[in-house]
Amino acid sequence: MKSSYMQQALEQAYQAINKDEVPVGAIIVYNNRVIAAAHNLTQCLGDPTAHAEMLAIKHACQMLGQGRLSECDLYVTLEPCAMCAGAISHARLRRVFYGAYDPKGGAVDHGPRIFQAPTCLHRPEVVSGINEQEASNLLKRFFLAKRKSDSYM
User: Which of 53, 82, 88, 131 has its CA 20 to 30 A from that of 113?
Assistant: First the structure.
């Protein structure tokens, strides 16, 4: 089941590519049902906080009519950054499943390791590497294409 949920998050990432956004997708599952799905929209919205995780969390909170998602699981194609990890903690998500590792910008298993900090409000269970290869390849292809198109300008 985890893999099929991650596949849905990957479908969101593919939608981001169609909008020339960094291909990151996220879904939130409650009672074995997807209640929120989102992909990066930072460029489209001109909003640096419009990461897939942030948008999915906001939508899930609206769907449930509450600010706590303690019975929900987040599936995201890339290791969350510090901003998103903070929001995950504040939203009290039960579990986080992510695909590709992000040694440069990640904040769960890399960098500040937000959930391991003594000041972290809530520590979700974390499972990494779900569909890692597909998520990683998607990002690599996107940035390779970006570098190639930028070199012609």
Answer: 131
Beta strands in 65-129 (DSSP E): 72-78, 95-100, 125-128
Rounded-to-integer distance, Cα 14 and Cα 41, Å? 12
Reading the chain (153 residues) residue by residue, the pLDDT tens digits are 567 999 999 999 999 999 999 999 999 999 999 999 999 999 999 999 999 999 999 999 999 999 999 999 999 999 999 999 999 999 999 999 999 999 999 999 999 999 999 999 999 999 999 999 999 999 999 999 988 876 544
Q: Is 53 one of the catalytic residues?
A: yes
Say if CB 27 and CB 4 are below 8 A apart: no
Select which of 53, 71, 125, 132 is catalytic: 53
